[in-house]
Amino acid sequence: MNDPRIARLADVLVGHSCQLKAGDKVLIEAFDLPDEQLVCRLIEAATRVGATPVVLHKRNAIQRALYQHLTVDAFKLMGELDLAWMERMDAYIGIRGAENSTEMSDVPAEQLDLYQQHWWKPVADVRVKQKRWVVLRYPTPAMAQSAQMSTEAFEDFYFDVCTVDYAQMARDEEPLRERMLAADRVEIRGPGTDLTFSIKDIPVIACSGRRNIPDGEVFTAPVRDSVNGVITYNTPSLYQGTIFNGIRFEFRDGQIIKAECANATDRLNQILDSDPGARYLGEWSLGCNNRVRKPMLDTLFDEKIGGSFHLTPGNAYETADNGNRSRVHWDLVCIQTPEYGGGEVWFDGELLRKDGRFLPDDLQPLNAGLADS
């Protein structure tokens, strides 16, 4: 059966996200897909424009076994082999399905750290810095369960969110990008949160379907040593197989000096001690996709929630660089809409967003779809 929504998604990924053209080589890397439809439609769409698709299909259960048992030398070898594939490519499309979203929960932390250091990060550095790329999830019953929806309803939601008018999204985000470029001091207030930092002279990137599907965020990075205060995240996060709830950080001069959470404080601090840069921030972003309204333990969706922001321990992107380097990049989300406790974002003494709603006139298009307060 050919689902026209999948063909539409493939066209978005090939034409808009990766902008494939004749002669390009694109790596399509798929994990735990329940069927072959999207990969087949991507092959068709890529070859239609004269590009050459290369496909890797992986299973998370097999990846788990590798992560559990590989030695340091074996991790290095796998990283070198994947890196050789990536270096030959012009573009990359990564599709993550999941039969079990917590498949990696019993992999020892030390093994996951070896994977991050010797396999994932060397490949990701080349992909992010040198290639056209996009990553996305694929709708599965496991994702529907995390979203507390039926499988059919979740599929409808997924395709609605992932195939939006990204050109219009880019136009709506531009005024926010310009305001962030002009801003210096940011203040964030909310339940358990009173935080200040500077974003002065850091580049700002408006995201509209080029790197993530779905999309809808405008990001920069705090000046590395400028962050002071406390933040309490109200959105659960699934990271390296563990679900973290109620994460709270205290900052002094940019560094996380105290970290705790409701259920896994030791593991939280173990991640933050991966390297010196993991206790500093590498990204700050305002989420503005109002079609995504509630968290579902999936970062690609949760970080785009309208009325949210994410503040990220670890590595900074070179496109919005504050100089912080780490093999950790952990997008942690706080939602500021009224049903999640509200909150405020201030730029240089001006209240920019209150309870998830932008206040300046030029930012009103970003409120489209929000319920009236």
What is the C-alpha radius of gyration, as a whole number of Å?
20 Å
Mean pLDDT: 95
Classification by helices and strands: alpha+beta
Helix-strand sequence: HEHEHHEHEHHHEEEEEEEEEEHEHEEEEE
Silhouette: globular
As an assembly, this protein is single chain
Number of helices: 10
Give the percentage of residues in beta strands: 25-35%
Q: How is the main sheet built? A: 8 strands, antiparallel
Which strands sit side by side, in order, in the main sheet? 14-13-10-6-5-18-19-20
User: Unreliable runs, pLDDT <50, ≥5 residues?
Assistant: none
**Whole-Å distance between the termini?**
44 Å
Q: Helical amount among residues, as a percent range?
A: 25-40%
The number of distinct structural domains comes to 2
Strand count: 20
If you had to describe this structure to a student in words, what would you say it looks like?
By secondary structure, this protein is α+β, with helices and mostly antiparallel strands. It has two domains: 4-162, 3-Layer(aba) Sandwich (Thermophilic metalloprotease-like); 166-367, no CATH class. 33% of the residues lie in helices and 26% in strands. A hairpin with a 2-residue loop joins strand 19 and strand 20 (357-358). Helix 1 (4-17) packs across helix 2 (37-48).
